[in-house]
Specification:
- With about 150 residues, the protein is an all-alpha fold.
- Helices cover about 85% and strands about 0% of the residues.
Amino acid sequence: MKFVRWIGALLIAALSTYVIGVIANSQFVMNAHGVPISLAERMNMTAFDVSNMWLYFVVILIALLLGFLIATVVKRLLPGLSRFAFPVAGAAAIGATLGLMYLQFQTVPISGARSGLGFASQVLAGGIGGWVFARFAQRQNATTTN
């Protein structure tokens, strides 16, 4: 049962990271062209991206899975870091994944992450996903102990 809850927390964290990351990506891509874009067009393009970048969700899910598995081990070895383990792991997992994409493709396929600020926004999305994971997993543990 604990495994199912852990997987549930992972899925919620990946979805959170994905939505935040794709929203940020969309805004960076639209801003890169220097053309005025109405709020309605921004909302429409962002909604399209959120509903169509499913492969990025898969990449995020795998990255966070690996990052959170490592963080689980680190938490046990260094309990003083447990508060920060999952947010740092989420941020590091996304940063490492984007770096590996660059090494493989000689570009970052997530075009909104090609600038320093765009890259940082994706890493921040991973950190928020890690925070979400920690909160959800903590809530699950609290309900099972009560």
